[in-house]
Amino acid sequence: MELGLKGKTAIVTGAGSQIGFGRAIVNNLAKEGCNIVACDIDLEGAKKTAAEAQAAGARAIALKNRHYQLSGSTGNGSSRY
Ligand SMILES: NC(=O)c1ccc[n+]([C@@H]2O[C@H](COP(=O)([O-])OP(=O)(O)OC[C@H]3O[C@@H](n4cnc5c(N)ncnc54)[C@H](O)[C@@H]3O)[C@@H](O)[C@H]2O)c1
Questions:
Q1: Were 53 and a residue from 18, 30, 31, 40 both cysteine, which residue would form a disulfide, CB within 3.0 to 4.6 Å?
Q2: Cβ(46)–Cβ(16) under 8 Å?
Q3: pTM greater than 0.70 (yes/no)
């Protein structure tokens, strides 16, 4: 599917799981021609995902990160933090 994302850079969190959404999102965005930043608390997993994207022809790096849930949702789609 052509999403018009070629050349864009996608930062994908939770990309380290080899059975999860993050890896699948990375693979699909790589096919779209995106540059990939594969982020996860599990750096080794993120590296595997980034390597797979590279093998598919994408520019990809892995990054160790820890994301946090924001509190204070206003209930109208925005958040205070
Ligand atoms: N809305 C829905 O219908 C629905 C359905 C299924 C899953 N989910 C949610 O989607 C998310 C991803 O699901 P999945 O199946 O890919 O899970 P998964 O467990 O396969 O992968 C999650 C990845 O996130 C990483 N991770 C966990 N905490 C982290 C943190 N604080 N910082 C950085 N990385 C962290 C883990 O190391 C893992 O690689 C989960 O939060 C899950 O609850 C939502």
A1: 30
A2: yes
A3: yes
Distance, CA of 6 to CA of 12 (rounded, Å): 16
Pocket residues: Cβ below 6 A from ligand 1: 13-14, 16-17, 19-22, 40-42, 45, 65-67
Q: Ligand 1 centroid vs 21 CA: distance in angstroms?
A: 7
* Residue % of the chain over a pLDDT of 70: 88
User: What pLDDT is stored for residue 80 in this prediction?
Assistant: 45
- What are the residue ranges in the chain where pLDDT is below 70? 72-81
DSSP state of 76: S
pLDDT for position 45 = 98
Q: Which of 17, 19, 27, 49 should be mutated for ligand 1, with most atoms under 8 A from CB?
A: 17
Domain boundaries, the chain: 9-64
Looking at the chain, how many residues does it have? 81
